[in-house]
Write a structure and sequence with these properties.
The protein contains eleven helices and twelve strands. By secondary structure, the protein is an alpha/beta fold. The chain folds into two domains: about 190 residues, Rossmann fold; about 90 residues, UDP-galactose 4-epimerase, domain 1. The strands form four sheets. A six-stranded parallel beta sheet has the order 2-1-3-4-5-10, with helices on both faces. A two-stranded parallel ribbon has the order 6-9. α1 packs across α7, α2 crosses α4 and α8 packs across α10. The longest helix is centred in the N-terminal third of the chain and has 21 residues.
Length: about 325
Amino acid sequence: MKITNKKILITGAHGFLGQNIVAELLKRGCRKENLYTPSHKEKDLTVLKNCRDVVKGMDIVIHAAGEVGGIGFNKERPGSLFYSNLIMGVQLMDEARKAKVKKFVAIGTICAYPKFTPVPFKEKDLWYGYPEETNAPYGLAKKMMLVQAQSYRQQYGFNAIYLLLTNLYGPGDNFDFKSSHVIPALIKKTYEVKMKSLSELKVWGTGRASREFLYVEDAALAIVLATEKYDGFEPVNIGSGEEITIKNLVKMMTKIIGFEGQIKWDKTKPDGQPKRKLNTSRAKKEFGFTAKTSFKIGLREEIEWYKRKYLKSKEHTSLNINSTN
């Protein structure tokens, strides 16, 4: 599908991932006036009428909106996470079908996978168990878009595809402790400890859990490539192929930042899913996507962005990142 002349709705366009999707679409030649990017304040997609309104006249819908957070946020708000993510996806896809939208790109999550999925996760493993408990309400709500996409394709011939994204990171990340994921939360916490000259950094869990992280610009590229080139029935994993334990992540991050104190693991707090790493061969085969950004380089970019955005100039001087790392 040639997308440069298409009218495209991007939900969640003002969020972390959405902003990068918009940037990638513009980079590939889409006209700004053809991109519809309503904010949550303008069009709350849990309201049916708003879903009906936003899809009118659109050729493509990229559904990147969602209510999302880290382990603590997930434990505090399982009901609202389930409801809001489920109802947005169901309503929006159905209204897109009725409006004869040519293609619907549903953005799913690695949280949809069963808790003890063999590593690396393959798309065929999606239904072989229940997700990790703290992620389940969010993951299952997003997973229902896959069921909807496949059933709508079967009954109505509706062209809906489903992409499973791993954990994202990079410049522009969410650093709010109430809803942030592990990387931005750790960066912020480490700088706070360093600026207070404390000797101990407390981190949730045991550090044994592993995660795969994908640089947000790479994620946006994958989504746009899939929009252009993939029209398949099967879900597609989108990831970097790199796996790192939380313990090694903390070591790498504190070394870059220059924190030399003690790391204390709070084992009363949950680790979340034990291991996460995706098999990304289908994405490479179907639309030629391979992640470009190594984790160490991407992590450094996020830390530098955080310094520029949130730390005062006098703090920049005293908290310079070690350039040898």
